[in-house]
Amino acid sequence: MTACAAVGTIHDRRWDRQGWWAARMAAVAEGEAGLETDSAACLLLHRHGRACPGHPSSIVAAQVAGARPMGASTARPRNRPGWTWRKLRRLPWPRSATTDVPAYLSAANRLTLPAHAEETAMQNRPHLLLWTDSPGPYVDAIRDAGLAERVDVDTLARSQQPSATQRASTTVLLAAGAPPGLLPTMPNLAWAQSLTAGVEGWLALPDLPPGLTLTCARGTHRESMPENILGALFHIAKPYAAIVEDQKRRLWRQRIATPLNGRTLGILGLGAIGQEVARLATALGMRVIGTKRRPAPLPGLDAVLAPEETGTVLAQSDYVLVLLPATPETENFINAGRLRAMKPTAWLLNFGRGQVIDDADLIAAVSSGTIAGAVLDVFRQEPLPPEHPFWITAGIIVLPHIGGPHPERDRIVARLFVRNLGLFLDGEPLTQVVDRAAGY
């Protein structure tokens, strides 16, 4: 296959759908702007930094992004979506047979776009659907990043459903989730950005398109959740809550605080949040150990172990922090057997996912004194039903899922989204792509 015949392959594979929009725009240019097939293919290849060796006559197609005839000048052309001069300069341009200049500058290789080609590109810009009740930070971030002229943006409240026109035109979807039956009705959807770090809802969809690129908001809780976790540790170790109750009774009672310095914190799930908690806990003088899917030494941690060595972490820890995602492997991971492996004076803190804990086993462990207590911020069903035993079990503290949310979180997610949007428009690999096999 020649390089210029590769356009068919690119359309078939859709570059894992991340370079799909560029492929579509090139096809439109080929069909409506009157370019030869090989020239359109080269335009597609060179817009994304792919060289087209051995075909100098079509290399000029990379320069038509400037929408003007090419002469002997090497002046920098105007920017166009999916194309950068820096990439163009790195290409192995063939040289003219008669002059020592790139072949695309020779007279035989000049090419001019018809006048309506730029208008066609404008009509085929990627269409973004921001399905959120707080679209402002995302619209602002797109504008501030200089991407507003390269995309069309629609906003939609979560209480509303996308219209038929929106479903047909949407290329990129930003949302907390999607109901069954929606995504298959969006034929042009190439990429979905989850507003949350956890994507179990997306992955549970029976009709999640297999070729859809799904990215998550992993790491965007780093500003608030570690502080809230430390707040839970202080609540356990310090007697402030009890002293407030003493004050209501005008009772002067000197309660003794338990120091965190020198205690061991075990973290199950040393991702971005876990590592930040470890950093802060180390600053308090705590010893930190934990588990990671791919164990490797981390700054400030005494030990990073594989999940198979969870028992070692449980046996040594005074506080066990659970930050595991919801996957088939982690369902009921904290069960009666693992709770028995903990110290009777130890506390369990779950800021990961409710499915990770066997509710009945935890209630039994706390009620019997197998462990000292638990602080729970996530649950199998939210809001937690009023009849659930967690509400009335002494030693279990129920938090209404306050670990991650904070006033600036949408702006933080917007920064992540816009970085990926720039990569998407340039046909580059995205970050925070969900591994469907792993579940996160």
Automatic annotation (TrEMBL):
What is the name listed in the Swiss-Prot or TrEMBL entry for this protein? D-isomer specific 2-hydroxyacid dehydrogenase NAD-binding domain-containing protein
Origin species, per record, is Rhodopila globiformis (Rhodopseudomonas globiformis)
Q: Where is the D-isomer specific 2-hydroxyacid dehydrogenase NAD-binding domain?
A: 231-403
- What UniProt keywords apply to this chain's record, in alphabetical order? NAD, Oxidoreductase
Q: Which PROSITE patterns match?
A: D_2_HYDROXYACID_DH_3
Read off the Pfam families from this record.
2-Hacid_dh_C
Q: Which domain of life is it from?
A: Bacteria
Gene Ontology MF: a single term = oxidoreductase activity, acting on the CH-OH group of donors, NAD or NADP as acceptor
